[in-house]
Amino acid sequence: MYNAGLQGRSRLSNIGPGSRPQSKGNQEKNLWSSLLDSVASGKKLPEKNLLVLGGNPELQREFLETLESDTSRRPQDRRRRKPPIANECALGYTYQDVLDADHDDILARLSIYMLSESLAVYSALVKPLLTPKTISDTLVVILLDWADPWSWARQVRDWVRFLKGVIVTMDDECKVTAEETMQEWQQRRRGAAYEGGTATSDAGAHIPLGQGEWDEPLGLPLCVACHGTEKIEALEREHGWREEEFDFSLQYLRTVLLK
User: Is the pLDDT reported for residue 238 higher than 70?
Assistant: First the structure.
Protein backbone atom coordinates (compact mmCIF):
# COMPACT_ATOMS: atom_id res chain seq x y z
CA MET A 1 0.00 0.00 0.00
CA TYR A 2 1.27 3.40 -0.85
CA ASN A 3 1.35 5.88 1.99
CA ALA A 4 2.27 9.26 0.61
CA GLY A 5 4.26 11.49 2.92
CA LEU A 6 2.91 14.90 3.87
CA GLN A 7 3.94 17.62 1.48
CA GLY A 8 5.49 20.83 2.63
CA ARG A 9 6.84 19.32 5.84
CA SER A 10 7.99 21.96 8.31
CA ARG A 11 10.66 21.88 10.96
CA LEU A 12 10.92 23.43 14.38
CA SER A 13 12.93 26.59 14.13
CA ASN A 14 15.77 27.28 16.49
CA ILE A 15 14.99 30.12 18.85
CA GLY A 16 17.78 32.59 19.12
CA PRO A 17 18.47 36.29 19.37
CA GLY A 18 16.45 38.21 16.83
CA SER A 19 14.16 35.30 16.07
CA ARG A 20 10.52 35.18 16.95
CA PRO A 21 9.52 32.19 19.11
CA GLN A 22 6.87 29.95 17.56
CA SER A 23 3.61 29.53 19.37
CA LYS A 24 2.88 26.34 21.26
CA GLY A 25 0.21 25.41 18.70
CA ASN A 26 2.64 25.71 15.79
CA GLN A 27 5.26 23.65 17.61
CA GLU A 28 2.75 20.87 18.25
CA LYS A 29 1.63 20.96 14.62
CA ASN A 30 5.22 20.66 13.39
CA LEU A 31 5.88 17.82 15.80
CA TRP A 32 2.83 15.87 14.58
CA SER A 33 3.79 16.48 10.95
CA SER A 34 7.23 15.01 11.62
CA LEU A 35 5.74 11.98 13.38
CA LEU A 36 3.22 11.36 10.60
CA ASP A 37 5.96 11.58 7.99
CA SER A 38 8.00 9.03 9.89
CA VAL A 39 5.08 6.61 10.22
CA ALA A 40 4.12 6.99 6.56
CA SER A 41 7.62 6.24 5.32
CA GLY A 42 7.86 3.27 7.68
CA LYS A 43 4.65 1.72 6.35
CA LYS A 44 5.61 1.61 2.69
CA LEU A 45 4.92 -1.91 1.53
CA PRO A 46 6.82 -4.06 -0.93
CA GLU A 47 5.13 -4.25 -4.31
CA LYS A 48 5.05 -6.93 -7.00
CA ASN A 49 3.60 -6.65 -10.49
CA LEU A 50 1.44 -9.07 -12.46
CA LEU A 51 0.96 -8.56 -16.20
CA VAL A 52 -2.01 -10.60 -17.44
CA LEU A 53 -2.11 -11.05 -21.22
CA GLY A 54 -5.12 -12.46 -23.00
CA GLY A 55 -8.71 -13.26 -22.18
CA ASN A 56 -11.66 -10.95 -22.43
CA PRO A 57 -12.53 -8.61 -19.53
CA GLU A 58 -14.94 -11.15 -18.03
CA LEU A 59 -12.39 -13.97 -18.09
CA GLN A 60 -9.78 -11.69 -16.56
CA ARG A 61 -12.13 -10.82 -13.71
CA GLU A 62 -12.84 -14.49 -13.06
CA PHE A 63 -9.11 -15.22 -13.03
CA LEU A 64 -8.40 -12.42 -10.57
CA GLU A 65 -11.07 -13.77 -8.23
CA THR A 66 -9.09 -16.99 -7.96
CA LEU A 67 -6.06 -14.99 -6.79
CA GLU A 68 -7.86 -13.24 -3.96
CA SER A 69 -7.39 -14.24 -0.37
CA ASP A 70 -10.26 -15.84 1.53
CA THR A 71 -12.61 -12.87 1.81
CA SER A 72 -14.79 -14.68 4.37
CA ARG A 73 -12.10 -14.06 7.00
CA ARG A 74 -11.52 -10.41 6.18
CA PRO A 75 -12.86 -7.60 8.32
CA GLN A 76 -16.18 -6.28 7.06
CA ASP A 77 -14.86 -2.84 6.18
CA ARG A 78 -12.18 -4.27 3.88
CA ARG A 79 -14.71 -6.28 1.96
CA ARG A 80 -16.63 -3.07 1.25
CA ARG A 81 -13.48 -1.42 -0.10
CA LYS A 82 -12.68 -4.05 -2.69
CA PRO A 83 -10.49 -2.45 -5.37
CA PRO A 84 -12.30 -1.79 -8.68
CA ILE A 85 -11.13 -3.55 -11.82
CA ALA A 86 -10.73 -1.24 -14.81
CA ASN A 87 -10.11 -3.49 -17.80
CA GLU A 88 -12.61 -2.47 -20.45
CA CYS A 89 -10.24 -0.35 -22.54
CA ALA A 90 -6.65 -1.02 -23.63
CA LEU A 91 -4.41 -1.58 -20.59
CA GLY A 92 -6.44 -2.41 -17.50
CA TYR A 93 -5.42 -2.07 -13.88
CA THR A 94 -6.35 -3.16 -10.39
CA TYR A 95 -4.51 -4.27 -7.29
CA GLN A 96 -4.75 -6.81 -4.49
CA ASP A 97 -3.38 -6.61 -0.98
CA VAL A 98 -1.44 -9.57 0.38
CA LEU A 99 -2.59 -10.21 3.94
CA ASP A 100 -1.04 -12.10 6.81
CA ALA A 101 -2.34 -15.46 8.03
CA ASP A 102 -4.92 -13.78 10.28
CA HIS A 103 -6.06 -11.41 7.50
CA ASP A 104 -5.45 -8.45 9.79
CA ASP A 105 -2.35 -6.76 8.39
CA ILE A 106 -1.34 -5.96 4.84
CA LEU A 107 2.09 -7.37 4.02
CA ALA A 108 2.49 -6.34 0.38
CA ARG A 109 0.61 -5.08 -2.63
CA LEU A 110 0.17 -6.83 -5.96
CA SER A 111 -0.35 -4.41 -8.86
CA ILE A 112 -2.17 -6.14 -11.70
CA TYR A 113 -2.11 -4.91 -15.30
CA MET A 114 -4.33 -6.52 -17.95
CA LEU A 115 -4.23 -6.51 -21.74
CA SER A 116 -6.73 -8.40 -23.89
CA GLU A 117 -5.33 -7.90 -27.39
CA SER A 118 -1.80 -8.47 -28.68
CA LEU A 119 -1.81 -5.50 -31.04
CA ALA A 120 1.63 -4.00 -31.66
CA VAL A 121 0.30 -0.53 -30.90
CA TYR A 122 -0.26 -1.59 -27.27
CA SER A 123 3.45 -2.28 -26.74
CA ALA A 124 3.90 1.40 -25.91
CA LEU A 125 1.57 0.90 -22.94
CA VAL A 126 3.47 -2.11 -21.59
CA LYS A 127 7.01 -0.82 -22.05
CA PRO A 128 6.85 1.75 -19.18
CA LEU A 129 5.93 -1.07 -16.79
CA LEU A 130 9.28 -2.79 -17.38
CA THR A 131 12.09 -0.86 -15.74
CA PRO A 132 15.35 -1.97 -14.11
CA LYS A 133 13.58 -1.74 -10.75
CA THR A 134 10.43 -3.68 -11.72
CA ILE A 135 11.59 -6.42 -14.11
CA SER A 136 12.70 -8.83 -11.39
CA ASP A 137 9.44 -8.23 -9.49
CA THR A 138 7.15 -8.72 -12.50
CA LEU A 139 5.46 -11.94 -13.60
CA VAL A 140 3.89 -12.21 -17.05
CA VAL A 141 0.85 -14.47 -17.27
CA ILE A 142 -0.66 -15.59 -20.58
CA LEU A 143 -4.29 -16.30 -19.79
CA LEU A 144 -5.96 -19.11 -21.73
CA ASP A 145 -9.51 -20.43 -21.59
CA TRP A 146 -10.45 -24.12 -21.46
CA ALA A 147 -13.52 -23.20 -23.50
CA ASP A 148 -11.30 -22.72 -26.54
CA PRO A 149 -8.17 -24.92 -26.34
CA TRP A 150 -7.95 -25.10 -30.15
CA SER A 151 -6.69 -21.50 -30.23
CA TRP A 152 -4.05 -21.90 -27.53
CA ALA A 153 -1.13 -22.35 -29.94
CA ARG A 154 -2.04 -19.21 -31.87
CA GLN A 155 -2.62 -17.17 -28.73
CA VAL A 156 0.68 -18.20 -27.13
CA ARG A 157 2.53 -17.47 -30.38
CA ASP A 158 0.96 -14.00 -30.69
CA TRP A 159 1.71 -13.05 -27.09
CA VAL A 160 5.31 -14.26 -27.26
CA ARG A 161 5.79 -12.18 -30.40
CA PHE A 162 4.20 -9.22 -28.62
CA LEU A 163 6.58 -9.55 -25.67
CA LYS A 164 9.59 -9.82 -27.96
CA GLY A 165 8.46 -6.62 -29.66
CA VAL A 166 8.39 -4.87 -26.30
CA ILE A 167 11.75 -6.23 -25.17
CA VAL A 168 13.68 -5.16 -28.29
CA THR A 169 12.64 -1.55 -27.66
CA MET A 170 13.90 -1.49 -24.06
CA ASP A 171 17.03 0.48 -23.24
CA ASP A 172 20.35 -1.20 -22.47
CA GLU A 173 19.92 -0.98 -18.70
CA CYS A 174 16.60 -2.83 -18.86
CA LYS A 175 18.05 -5.48 -21.14
CA VAL A 176 20.95 -6.08 -18.74
CA THR A 177 18.50 -6.44 -15.85
CA ALA A 178 16.37 -8.84 -17.89
CA GLU A 179 19.45 -10.94 -18.70
CA GLU A 180 20.46 -11.09 -15.04
CA THR A 181 16.92 -12.10 -14.08
CA MET A 182 16.96 -14.95 -16.59
CA GLN A 183 20.35 -16.13 -15.37
CA GLU A 184 18.98 -16.29 -11.86
CA TRP A 185 15.97 -18.34 -12.98
CA GLN A 186 18.21 -20.62 -14.99
CA GLN A 187 20.41 -21.27 -11.96
CA ARG A 188 17.31 -22.12 -9.93
CA ARG A 189 16.18 -24.53 -12.63
CA ARG A 190 19.54 -26.30 -12.51
CA GLY A 191 19.39 -26.65 -8.74
CA ALA A 192 21.86 -23.96 -7.71
CA ALA A 193 21.32 -21.76 -4.71
CA TYR A 194 21.22 -18.19 -5.96
CA GLU A 195 21.99 -15.44 -3.48
CA GLY A 196 23.06 -11.87 -3.96
CA GLY A 197 23.27 -12.22 -7.74
CA THR A 198 25.72 -15.15 -7.73
CA ALA A 199 25.29 -18.91 -7.56
CA THR A 200 26.66 -20.40 -4.36
CA SER A 201 29.18 -23.23 -4.56
CA ASP A 202 27.47 -25.46 -2.02
CA ALA A 203 24.41 -26.05 -4.13
CA GLY A 204 25.33 -29.63 -4.92
CA ALA A 205 25.09 -31.31 -8.30
CA HIS A 206 23.46 -29.23 -11.02
CA ILE A 207 20.73 -30.67 -13.19
CA PRO A 208 21.73 -30.30 -16.85
CA LEU A 209 19.34 -28.44 -19.11
CA GLY A 210 17.30 -30.59 -21.45
CA GLN A 211 17.21 -30.28 -25.20
CA GLY A 212 15.46 -27.09 -26.26
CA GLU A 213 15.44 -25.51 -22.78
CA TRP A 214 16.32 -21.80 -22.69
CA ASP A 215 16.76 -21.66 -26.47
CA GLU A 216 14.86 -18.36 -26.68
CA PRO A 217 14.74 -16.73 -23.24
CA LEU A 218 12.52 -13.65 -23.14
CA GLY A 219 14.15 -11.99 -20.18
CA LEU A 220 10.91 -11.95 -18.20
CA PRO A 221 9.42 -14.56 -15.85
CA LEU A 222 6.56 -16.12 -17.79
CA CYS A 223 3.79 -18.57 -16.99
CA VAL A 224 0.58 -19.75 -18.64
CA ALA A 225 -2.70 -19.98 -16.74
CA CYS A 226 -5.41 -22.25 -18.19
CA HIS A 227 -8.58 -20.93 -16.61
CA GLY A 228 -11.98 -22.59 -16.40
CA THR A 229 -11.20 -26.20 -15.55
CA GLU A 230 -14.92 -26.81 -15.03
CA LYS A 231 -15.21 -26.72 -18.84
CA ILE A 232 -13.06 -29.84 -19.23
CA GLU A 233 -16.11 -32.07 -18.80
CA ALA A 234 -17.75 -30.36 -21.80
CA LEU A 235 -14.69 -31.16 -23.92
CA GLU A 236 -14.95 -34.82 -22.95
CA ARG A 237 -18.70 -35.00 -23.43
CA GLU A 238 -19.23 -32.85 -26.52
CA HIS A 239 -15.94 -33.21 -28.41
CA GLY A 240 -14.76 -36.63 -27.36
CA TRP A 241 -11.53 -35.45 -25.78
CA ARG A 242 -9.60 -38.13 -23.94
CA GLU A 243 -6.42 -38.20 -21.90
CA GLU A 244 -4.29 -38.14 -25.06
CA GLU A 245 -5.72 -34.81 -26.25
CA PHE A 246 -5.28 -33.19 -22.85
CA ASP A 247 -1.72 -34.47 -22.50
CA PHE A 248 -0.81 -33.18 -25.97
CA SER A 249 -2.17 -29.68 -25.26
CA LEU A 250 -0.44 -29.36 -21.90
CA GLN A 251 2.84 -30.79 -23.21
CA TYR A 252 2.82 -28.16 -25.94
CA LEU A 253 2.55 -25.42 -23.31
CA ARG A 254 5.34 -26.96 -21.24
CA THR A 255 7.61 -27.07 -24.29
CA VAL A 256 7.02 -23.41 -25.09
CA LEU A 257 7.65 -22.33 -21.48
CA LEU A 258 10.85 -24.35 -21.21
CA LYS A 259 12.21 -22.58 -24.27
Answer: yes
